[in-house]
Amino acid sequence: MWHRLKKLKLNNKGFTLVEVVLFIVMSGILLGVTTDIMVGQVEAYSFLTNRQNALSDSRYALSRISNDLLRIPTGGLLSVSSSQIDFIDSDGFSTSFNFNSGELRRGAETLLESVADFQVLGLDQDGNETATLSDIKKLRVTIVTAPVASEGSLTLSTSITPRVFVYNSYE
Questions:
Q1: Do residues 74 and 164 lie in contact, with contact meaning Cβ atoms separated by under 8 Å?
Q2: In Å, how far are 81, 89, 143 from 58, measured between CA atoms?
Q3: Radius of gyration of the chain from its Cα atoms, rounded to whole angstroms
């Protein structure tokens, strides 16, 4: 009988209460650390995705503005102010790029939402700012996006020399 009890004691394959509690505590710690790492990675991905989308949308708007302004016909520049430019497009239609209520528009079409600032500057041949249409040889366009959450704003700027301005210099 003594031999039988000894055999039962050696074949005991269960866990003690201390081992189960220790496993639960260790699993909780590991799960907490893993969750914290995953949350940080998801937040970083979200930040980068939002930033990339804002940059892509802003680049598209700036590219569209550049392409339209490059093709202004002779006498096609109608007016330039700090937040609006009126011109005749390559199809002969009078249109404008303007900034109002956080939106950048081409005529009635919204090019970009969440805009903090839009500036158009007319520059003379020496690069000095001018409001006189006949003196404008280059245009500087700047778009500043509105910050999303704590991501900060993006500033994109380009200088555009409409083709007609270049050709008029050689006449």
A1: yes
A2: 20, 21, 7
A3: 32
pLDDT tens-digit profile of 13-67?
Answer: 788 899 899 999 999 999 999 999 999 999 989 888 888 888 999 999 999 999 9
- Strands 138-145 and 103-106 come out as unpaired
pTM above 0.85, yes or no: no
The candidate with the shortest Cα–Cα distance to 153, out of 22, 58, 78, is 58
Residues 6+ apart with CB under 8 A from 74: 164, 168
Tell me: the pLDDT tens digits for 53-97? 889 999 999 999 999 999 998 888 999 988 899 999 888 999 999
b/e string for 106-124 if b means 16 or more Cβ within 10 A?
beeeebbeebebbebbbbe
Contacts of 19 (CB under 8 A, 6+ apart): none
| Among the listed residues 101, 138, 103, the one whose alpha carbon sits nearest the alpha carbon of residue 120 | 138
Classify residue 62 by burial, with Cβ atoms within 10 Å: 0-12, 13-18, 19+.
buried
CA distance 137 to 124: 5
Contacts of 59 (CB under 8 A, 6+ apart): 156
